[in-house]
């Protein structure tokens, strides 16, 4: 049975089931476990990275214009001319790859919140991947932070999940509606704690 | 000192080879971690199409160069007239 909190929390999930990663391939869901949130960074973070890369694609045009205006003989030089063409070609290949890597980095970083636990799936570069999880019952405090003009304007920020353990906090980075996520997460924790108490009571009886 | 222009292609081809390896690894990551969705497919397609366009334009640009030409240069310039005019 899905609670009203769970149903409300689902509204924040900005990706449909088909657009999300195949969650079953990432986690082995326990019986009765349901995915409540599937979060990624706010799309504006990805778009910002894309704009930077698009800007980088115009740099060779600017360099060409500058050289053509000041040292036009370099473009026709037997040695410098081919070197510039090779560098420009390699540069575009690599900027294009950088753009694709930016997408992979955005797309493969995700936070999955179920009615039982939180999973943090993080891709750092091409060869580092971290998957960590935290039981909702261990959560002691949830804090949301929105810092800066862009996060304020576009409504994204960080959500810090604190446990009693000494290990570092779980952080949902640059996620949309951080305040709403914090509230829903606390509701889920409360719900989980109630469930646990009722189970304990039944066990005692 | 002189050398063939074709020598310049060696570091260029190494850079392209590395590009290809990393591109394949990126696509592998998408498939390996189960992100074979419509969005990832579209982005992969755009990436591949863009790479093909860059390769085509590069080919058009580089094919005009005679890579067998031997170029010579001197480490010391004997005249200020050899320097680029600013």
Summarize the structure in words:
The complex is a heterodimer of chains A (205) and B (86). Chain A is an alpha+beta fold. Chain A has 7 helices and 7 strands, in the order H-H-E-H-H-H-E-E-E-E-H-E-E-H. Chain A has 2 domains: 133 residues, PH-domain like, CATH 2.30.29; 59 residues. Helices cover 51% and strands 23% of the residues of chain A. In chain A, the strands form 2 sheets. A 4-stranded antiparallel β-sheet of chain A has the order 1-2-3-4. A 3-stranded antiparallel β-sheet of chain A has the order 5-6-7. In chain A, helix 1 runs antiparallel to helix 7 and helix 3 packs antiparallel against helix 5. The N terminus of chain A is likely disordered. Chain B has a two-stranded antiparallel ribbon. Chain B is elongated, with a radius of gyration of 21 Å. Chain B is 57% helix and 7% strand. Chain B has 86 residues and is mainly α. The two termini of chain B are 26 Å apart. Chain B has one domain.
């Amino acid at each position: 049975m899905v609670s009203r909190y769970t149903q409300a929390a689902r509204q924040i999930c900005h990706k449909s089931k088909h657009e999300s990663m195949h969650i079953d391939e990432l986690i082995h869901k326990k019986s009765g476990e349901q995915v409540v949130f599937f979060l990624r960074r706010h799309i504006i973070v990805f778009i910002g990275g894309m704009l930077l890369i698009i800007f980088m694609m115009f740099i060779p045009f600017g360099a060409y214009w500058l050289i053509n205006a000041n040292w036009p003989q370099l473009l026709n030089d037997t040695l410098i001319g081919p070197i510039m063409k090779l560098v420009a070609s390699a540069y575009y290949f690599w900027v294009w790859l950088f753009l694709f890597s930016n997408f992979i980095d955005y797309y493969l970083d995700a936070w999955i919140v179920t009615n039982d636990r939180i999973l943090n799936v993080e891709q750092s570069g091409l060869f580092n991947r971290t998957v960590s999880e935290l039981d909702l019952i261990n959560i002691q405090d949830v804090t949301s932070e929105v810092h800066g003009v862009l996060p304020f304007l576009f409504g994204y920020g960080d959500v810090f999940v604190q446990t009693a353990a000494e290990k570092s906090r779980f952080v949902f980075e640059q996620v949309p509606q951080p305040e709403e996520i914090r509230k829903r997460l606390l509701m889920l924790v409360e719900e989980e704690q109630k469930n646990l108490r009722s189970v304990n009571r039944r066990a005692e009886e | 000192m002189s050398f063939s222009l074709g020598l310049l292609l060696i570091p260029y081809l190494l850079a392209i080879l590395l590009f290809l390896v990393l591109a394949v690894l990126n696509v592998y990551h998408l498939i390996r971690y189960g992100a074979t969705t419509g969005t990832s497919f579209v982005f992969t397609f755009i990436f591949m199409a863009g790479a093909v366009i860059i390769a085509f334009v590069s080919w058009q640009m580089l094919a005009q160069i005679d890579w067998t030409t031997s170029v010579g240069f001197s480490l010391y310039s004997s005249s200020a007239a050899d320097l680029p005019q600013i």
